[in-house]
## 1
Amino acid sequence: MRPTARWTAMAGLVLFGLMACSSNPEPEVEPATDEAPPAADPGPDPAELAEAAARSLCEQAETAARRGDYDGARRLYNQAMSEYAGTECARSASSEIDRIDAIETLEDRIHFGFDRAELTDEAVATLNRKADVLRRHPDVRMTIEGHCDERGSIEYNFALGMRRAQAAKNYLSGLGIGEDRFRAVSFGKERPLDPGHNERAWSQNRRDEFVIENLGSI
Amino acid sequence: MHPFGNRWLRGSTATLWTSLALLALSGGGSQAHAQEDEGVRLGITYRPGYVPALAITDIVTEAPFAAVASAIDSVIARDLDYSDRFEILPVPDSLRAGSAVNYGLWNQLGAVWLLEGTLTVSDQQAILRVGLHDVVYGSLKEVQAFTLPPVASPDFRMAVHRVSDAVVEWATGEPGMAASRIAFSRRAMDGTWDIYVVDSDGRGVQRATRRNALVFSPAFSPDGGHIAFQYQSNSGDESGIYDLELETGRASAVTSGSLMHLTPAFTPDGSRILFARSASGGTEIFEVDRSGGSPRALTSTAVGDALGPAIAPDGRRFAFTGSAVGAPQIYVQEDAGARPRLISRFVRGADSYATSPDWNPRDDRIVYQSRVQGQFQIVVVNADGSEMRLLTSEGRNEDPSWAPDGRHIVFSSDRGGYHGLWVLDTVTGRARNLLRNSEDQLPDWSNVLGSDP
């Protein structure tokens, strides 16, 4: 951490501490009289304002993350860190970004060739990254959903989708990740990601989706 | 007590019977388009042969039942048209049945067959007496009296269809298929699927399941009273093969669990169900007693899938979709553990993708869908892989199922610019639209439905 950053963070902590003290116990309240002179307005507490603004960023980031807008969430956390260093939000932002990175890695889709259930090099690289996260968080459990494009027949696509889900499951198990942490299901061609009828849509729809059932320690 | 009770033909009750009968015959007012559809002839793979002309005279009855008789007439005329075994002759108004048949005159009009009927309604029951005349030989070929069930009975229309099937059998010696139903999966707006059933003439659509889940691949029991289907919950957590009793709507799991279950099919004796279930490498075909118990594996594909069993009438052999060599193909296997034989690979111009076989209920032919020049078409082939023939060429055509007459098939298709279920006569190539609904898939045609047991 750079010295200035550390100083800012410490100042933030001091401010935060003072704020906590000043707000508790309750200040004495003067009895109200009609002729009481107007109390001097101390103006908004800058620390309090910073906390509120940062808190709002953190809340927006959480909403974005829940929507699956991980880039947006990261941007908001980074903004909190750079603009409101020392606030509660800013202090948690770094670990929140790590958390989002882990979730995004786990949820990353993998794609397949037409009528294929073999893992591509790209899919293997994606699964390797998942394995790293899964090793760090041994209590995470996932459902792997196999999906197909619209060109095949309905029933066969259910079988093909299952082979796609099992391909990912078997690969991760082969890396030493417990098989009982995955559930393989197939939705055939019933839940396309892209409703289009062209190669671009089809290549998007031939996929495994990874649904986190138990976040565990993430 | 007879189902008609004593109220049969008593004043206003008779009028009520008449209007109910008309309603029943019109299929509750739905699907009224079916009769308007022109048949589409596919030129490429069919040789139109000789089709004998059949004339149908108006059913003779008492005045209060004229409308019913006329409705019965049109159902029978449509059934016989849909049988694709006759050319239905328009009958001049001047020619009425009831008196002695003038064979010479009918012969001059070009009729080979003449059908006439009488509807008699008594206190106790309605009887339709039907006679088929062989105009060429100048003799009465067959005559039979059919008792019609109460008009409110769901079997009323079916009873009329059975009359049509009898006429087909008298004239050709072969079974008809009018008295049968087609089950299919229909997708709802929310993306879930359920099973529906429709009569062979496109009337009387009924919803059979209300699971709002992934309910696929209906398969009729041999007696037509039950439907087996694949159920998968929307989360994918549960999957199973279920046995639905149509009359009560009760469905019970034959086999279920967390493994994926697919594509059930009843054995011809109705005692067992073949289905596919996910295994380590892909899906394998299993059989299980209809009452449940432990499934027994029939295939050992190990690599790729085996699914979609279609059982031969002998109950011993079955065809299925297998992807052991990569792209899915059609195989035929005898008995558990035997070596499957590839039967689908020799289609010229096909880019090697064949699925969804169905075995003819009367002979050794198998229909399936095959990708031809990027589009699914229906192919028919002998069980030994010989005499392969393309049955369709227009649009995307999928999931064929044989009719009980062994010559028609039902399938889903987007021919003509809209998706629906279609019926095709594999002899003449005539196609008719059964249902015009873009969300209907995976049809299965029942056997001929007997009268109530």
## 2
Amino acid sequence: MPALYNLAVSRSLPGGFAVVGVARREKSNDQFRAEMKEGVSSFSRRKPIDPALWQDFARGVSYVAGTFENPKTYSDLRAHLDQLDAERGTSKNRLYYLAVPPAEFGVIMKNLKEAGLVAPPSPPGSGAPWTRVIIEKPFGEDLASAKVLNETVAQTFDESQVFRIDHYLGKETVQNLLVFRFANSLFEPLWNREHVDHVQITVAEEIGVEGRGKFYEQTGVTKDIVENHLMQLLCLTAMEPPISLAADAVRDEKVKVLRSLRPMERSMVQENVVRGQYARGYVKGEEVPAYREEPDVAKDSRTDTYVAMRIHIDNWRWGGVPFYVRAGKRLARRVTEIAIQFKKVPHGLFRAPDGGISPNVLTMRIQPDEGIALRFTTKEPGQATILRDVAMDFRYGAAFGSNTPEAYERLLLDAMRGEATLFTRRDEVEEQWAYIDNIFDAWRAEANAPPPLYPAGTWGPEQADDLLARDGRRWRRP
Amino acid sequence: MTGPAAGTGKTRSLIERLEKELRELWTQPEDPAAIPKSRVCTMNLEVVASSHELLERYTPVVDEVTATMPSRVILASIEPDAATDEITGSATAVCSIEGGRNICSERITLKATGNAAARSASAIEAFLVPEIPTALVWLGRVHVDDPVFQDLANDAHRIILDSMYTSLGSLLNVASWARTQVNAPEISDMAWTRLASWQEMTARFFDRPEARRFATKITKITLRQASEPGAHLGPEPALLLGWIATRLEWKTSRLGGKTRFKRPDGGTVIIELGAVPLPKGVAPQTLAGIAVEAEDDDGTKMTGSIERELGSGLASGQEDATADADVMVWKHATAGAPPLEQRVRLGANKAAKWLERTLHRPKHDPAFNESVSFAEQIVHDGLTV
């Protein structure tokens, strides 16, 4: 709702627009509006809330009570939507946002269809009423369940009507990856095995499970972050130039990357994947409990709160270039970044530590302080030739102001426009799971081996350092 | 959050407040005529002291350094014995006008007291700017098993000590610890930086073509330091001796409980250590002099000496002179050649100068590392003056 309100502030919403909440609990439209206002007041980047604007926006906010299993809920909803079509000019265009557990998708979609609330797909720009659905991750919990889920969705919606939302893809810097790579002639010629030594992708959080112990016990960081966000970042970094920015052109290229990943056979997991779980420690000067001390977490939990992987992409561009990825909770700092480390210079002209010069690193920071930095070596002023690493640092906030749109604003607007480039396609989801499934198979086979512990506030278990040390490399300290 | 380890959130709030203050430092001034501040940052400079008072004394030193080496400075005092358990702090910009531009460094000051001292490293690390080198300046004695030191050292590219004001033992312990670490930070010592003029003048004994052969024929080194007789060998004499010995590839050996210094040709070098009175304003164990004697195979002798006129600094009349901006008297004599004598005045002994020079030096210095290893051997023998 804060994202929708922000879109209203920026006058990005269509003229005929309304939001209808549907849930079990009985409440009036006014109660629902009051709850939404509170949420917007707390989380909108446009603070304080503009009373006149909110009043206008709230007129389009309403509520229908009912259980998801009951067909009456849907007949009530249909009547309500028909009324809104007449009153607010919404033209029978419907965008359903299912913020519910995947187990509920089937019954909701079946009832929507049976209530006549799903229009057949229509070509963009045809003027015919459209129906689309946004679903949130997790898109399944393994390949088999993802396929079942996709099949369930496909019984009601054509793939062109399905928008699987991954909020990472709505972030400015992620979108900028494509611009950076394909709108600048400088970088793309270097973006390959000839010049790149390796790539590191980090999704690090300072926070723990924050009261979501029950959820986390069922998922862990590999399912929560790696299978979706991190794989998407890897695809955008490694993909070939698409023939256009059309949704399927971009998504085709991402799928090609996923199909090029060297399969992680069970026997390879121990050598290429390190998992961990946070123990007590200090984060930003605060003592924090161990994962096993969090509410709703088993005292002998084996859930992964950290994972690091070495991934190989077996294609012409990336053959022999490892992609090291890591994600974790309670790490030293919150940072999401993609770092391209270039090869060392072929001959050491200058006297420098370890006989070499620090390699150039290009870093795309997704969060916080979204931006791009290039590290290079320079000479310190003075009589002697002393080398020093420096960074050219571009920050979005400094260049364009800090009030950049939230990821959800862009994604919701794209869904309303029918623009699917930043949403995940069915085959992407299934390819991602196909890759990750092998890792879980291997972990299940070693069920008695608990994940190594790492103190909260550090950069993960020592075994993760060893993973890179074996290749003569080291993790960045972003 | 449950369990005994739950934090109060105060430090997190402090960090968030300071981060906000730092961001606000860089907003454009409302007055269009005002010179906007330019944030410049070439490195992270962490300075850790064992008391807030010591940190306050050192703050102007850091400000002077950042005027020429703009940095993100994080000053932290750690006082685990204090009564209160808290981390407090402030943030400010330290600016200097250069060519019409207001060049600024960010300075964050943290004070960790009581039990909060244990979590100070994670608070300090929260302020590090990514992508740039990090130097850790540790004021006071270092214990390598101190978890705060370990956490900060592991994330630093370079650790800077001043063994004259901590101890030679601290330097040797840190160097020994670093050798056991994978991807260890480089160690630097401001006392080593101060030795540069001694090294240069010592090397000059062998500069002239007719004197070069004597470098491999040294028979005796006499070192003097300003201290009570019987005091342990200080960092400056120990490192200078280590430097000479490693440059000339001497080895140590023991016989009858005594340390022996052997040249590569098997000749023995006698080391004589002595004490001179310590004038006011001069640090204890300051290197006061060195004398070198050498004898060629044909019996030709060479002598060289450097004597520091301790406490003569204030007589220079120079602005900013310190008591130990001393005159050095360099003498050289070779049989058959006229004796040479030269007087040189050391620059003012200012902490900012040594920190800045140390930061400007290559962080990897094989001569320093080898000298420290050598010093480690002779210190274990408990050499006294």
